[in-house]
UniProtKB/TrEMBL annotation, chain A:
FAD/NAD(P)-binding domain sequence ranges: 3-303
Organism superkingdom: Bacteria
Pfam families referenced in this protein's UniProt entry, alphabetically: Pyr_redox_2 (PF07992), Reductase_C (PF14759)
Cross-referenced Gene3D superfamilies: 3.30.390.30, FAD/NAD(P)-binding domain (3.50.50.60)
Database matches in SUPFAM superfamilies: FAD/NAD(P)-binding domain, FAD/NAD-linked reductases, dimerisation (C-terminal) domain
GO cellular component labels: cytoplasm
Swiss-Prot/TrEMBL cofactor(s): FAD
UniProt entry tagged with the keyword rRNA-binding: no
InterPro entries for this protein: FAD-oxidoreductase/Apoptosis, FAD/NAD-bd_sf, FAD/NAD-binding_dom, FAD/NAD-linked_Rdtase_dimer_sf, Reductase_C
Keywords attached to this entry: FAD, Flavoprotein, Oxidoreductase
Lineage: Bacteria, Pseudomonadati, Pseudomonadota, Alphaproteobacteria, Rhodospirillales
Protein name from the UniProt record: Pyridine nucleotide-disulfide oxidoreductase
TrEMBL record, chain B:
An example Gene Ontology biological process: P450-containing electron transport chain
Native source species: Nitrospirillum viridazoti CBAmc
CDD domains, alphabetized: fer2
Cofactors demanded by this protein: [2Fe-2S] cluster
PROSITE patterns named in the record: 2FE2S_FER_2
Domain 2Fe-2S ferredoxin-type: 2-100
Highest taxon of the lineage: Bacteria
InterPro entries xref list: 2Fe-2S_ferredoxin-like_sf (IPR036010), 2Fe-2S_ferredoxin-type (IPR001041), Adrenodoxin-like (IPR001055), Beta-grasp_dom_sf (IPR012675)
Family annotation (SUPFAM superfamilies): 2Fe-2S ferredoxin-like
Alphabetically ordered keywords of this record: 2Fe-2S, Iron, Iron-sulfur, Metal-binding
Family of the protein in this entry: Belongs to the adrenodoxin/putidaredoxin family.
GO molecular function, one term: 2 iron, 2 sulfur cluster binding
Name of the protein: Ferredoxin
Amino acid sequence: MQHDVLIVGAGHGGAQVAITLRQRGYTGGIALVGDEPELPYERPPLTKDYLSGAKPFERILIRPAAFWQARGVTLLPGRRVAAVDAAAHTVTTAGGEVFGYGQLVWAAGGQARRLACAGGDLAGVHTVRTRADADALRAELPAVERVVVIGGGYVGLEAAAVLRAAGKSVVLLEQADRVLARVAGEALSRFYEDEHRAQGVDLRLGAQVKDIVGDGRQVTGVRLADGTLIPAQMVVAGIGITPAVQPLLAAGAEGGDGVVVDAFCRTSLPDIRAIGDCALHANAYADGRRIRLESVQNANDMAITVAKALTGAADPYHAVPWFWSNQYDLKLQTVGLSAGHDAAVLRGDPAARSFSIVYFRAGRVVALDCVNAIRDYTQGRALVEGGARCDPAAVADISVPLKDLAAGA
Amino acid sequence: MPIITVVSRDGTGRAVEMDTGTTLMEGLRDHGFDEVLAMCGGCCSCATCHVYVEPASTATEEEDALLALSAHRRDNSRLSCQITLAPDHDGLRVEIPPED
């Protein structure tokens, strides 16, 4: 079967490529291959409103079923692309189906990393990346009292918050000396650690997991390197993803931890573009360093970059990164990238549960983390976009709106 | 169920019946108005579901802050994810603003 545009990956990025192509009047054939059985759906609620049961699956669909049919987008769910032949312009699925393409858009995201230690495959050990993951976890939950969450990143923290709200006893293990170490400054880490502890989470930093203990079938606990045994009927691992790029790399694409793309999301292979979590790209907000960005924003904006390029309106990717995380009654909103910052200014009082952290690099504002501080988030965006040089003392003064500082850019 | 008139960017209008209890953003999405991006899925973290509504209604404080991100904000701007549809939304006129 031949498709003018074949999109591999039916998450936010893949779906948005198809939506934007049609919106821009593209009339060629479009097919969307996904390895899950589902219609394209939103992933962030899997650790928030879907996990808690507040939103049914139908409400997290990116579009209803009828939409794809009406737009002439062929959905090919339940298929994992195992090989790409760039010269022949074909892909082959694990089930042996072959699809030809004119243009290939690789939006396959990544797979949740699984615990490599002994016992990581016991029943009751979960990851949360797919609807099936979340459903499996929820199905077991009524019989579970004690949960160990491994990993203090956003997935682990959000899952812990939902599990606490569901009345479970939660131990959260982070191997670093603070949570969110990869994505935020220390002040934000400490705030979230305090919050989770206040909510009753037994949060342990510097915790090295030795193995997962079970009765041969079902998990019964987690053993730490120091010998401590933590009993649990469920383990949730939020330890990151592995970008799903192996077929592209095997086909000769440049890459490693992800697949390398240029400003138009082109890989080093002809007529193959890549977007979203798996795309290693030079990001203007990371000093031009090549990074992968695991976010809905990045998936959507790269999708739009590709759809424009495929419809004759090429416009390089330059979107400002933004991200959100909801935990308990806390709404964190992030703009820019704080990695590599050399100064951080606290704006507001964490005890008041509404504050921001403004990150600087070489005197310029590079990012903000805003907790229940939506005005700082929206006004701070201009400071990040403009690379504003602001007086740190002025930034710390909450009586001065951040928009008044933009002139210093 | 309320009947809502939606005017797309190209100026064409269409009256559709939307379910109560869901948000206007979901109603727009489910009826195929794909100009509404709604990137954050309706949790009031972006401004990509911005619409103009007639009659005008008051934006929440959070919405008000987010609407500042749009260059096309008007007095009757709302984030469609923050409007939960009720029977009295019957007759509402919704217009999709220009792309930001």
